[in-house]
Write a structure and sequence with these properties.
Blueprint: H1 3-6, H2 10-24, H3 31-50, H4 53-58, H5 73-82, H6 87-92, H7 98-114, H8 126-181, E1 185-188, E2 197-202, E3 206-221, E4 228-243, E5 251-257, H9 260-263
Antiparallel strand pairs: 1-3, 2-3, 3-4, 4-5
Length: 264
């Protein structure tokens, strides 16, 4: 996946592309330092956008650092990765992103240093500049991968619970809709694509999961001994929510059952 695709918004993408353009301007004697300033702002924007102070402080794992009254970069990186999930739950999924976080924090420190230009710190060696930018961008990619890997692991861990919750909710929530289309009865045989489970959000308190799929329904008409059957595929989606303390205890919070194709 392209690094641009891992970024959450247009500002992030503009900061990345602008920083790399500055780094590639070989006619500019301060190109590394200008690029470092842009990349530093990109890291800062990501961590503050994905991990607001008030949300980080709500997490059970949060402890105020003794050397600062604010939320630390590492705590922001942790929140952006796992939200309010406990370290124990994340460890149980086999996720270990500590090294990726360390590389990102170290990169931010080096970027901060590089933005202060003095005669003795001006860097104009092409190889050193390329290596510096490559290391910073690599750390950025690692940070974004840590977010993605954790979400993927949470998604895999919850798939069974999501499927069971969906099976229970699908017919219950749409019983009247399906019944109104059938003369005598119906049968539902779900077709499921594993890729249709998506972690929508992980906050300090909740995780939201979206499930979408196709519900092939066989509608039955006429007398039992001479019933006619008509099959139709109904697209649907459902959103479930659970507390981070009990992530498998999913509750349906929103859903949509698309019967428009039947009437068309």
């Amino acid at each position: 996946m392209d690094l641009q695709d891992l970024l959450p918004d247009d500002l992030s993408r503009d900061l990345l592309s602008g920083s790399l353009r500055a780094a590639q301007d070989t006619e500019n004697p301060v190109r590394m330092h200008l690029s470092a300033a842009g990349l530093r702002e990109l890291f800062g924007h990501l961590l503050h956008t994905l991990a607001p102070d008030e949300e980080v402080r709500k997490c059970s794992w949060f402890e105020q650092a003794k050397d600062t009254p604010t939320v630390t970069r590492r705590q922001r990186a942790t929140y952006a990765t796992q939200g309010g999930f406990s370290d124990e739950f994340i460890a149980s999924l086999g996720v270990n992103v500590d090294e990726l976080h360390k590389e990102a924090i170290d990169a931010i420190t080096e970027l901060n240093k590089a933005t202060h230009v003095r005669p003795q710190t001006l860097q104009q060696d092409p190889e050193a500049i390329d290596a510096f930018i490559a290391e910073a961008v690599g750390a950025l990619e690692g940070l974004l991968i840590s977010f993605s890997e954790c979400r993927s692991s949470v998604q895999n861990a919850l798939e069974k619970s999501v499927y069971e919750s969906m099976m229970n909710a699908l017919v219950t929530e749409n019983f009247d809709t399906i019944s109104s289309l059938s003369g005598r009865g119906y049968e539902v045989d779900l077709w499921i694509d594993d890729d249709e489970v998506e972690i929508v959000s992980i906050s300090a308190e909740n995780v939201r999961v979206r499930f979408s799929g196709i519900a092939p329904v066989t509608l039955q008409y006429g007398p039992k001994n001479d019933a006619a059957e008509i099959s139709h595929d109904f697209p649907f989606w459902m959103v479930f929510e659970a507390k981070v303390e009990t992530p498998t205890n999913l509750k349906l919070v929103d859903h949509f059952f698309d019967d428009s194709g039947w009437f068309e």
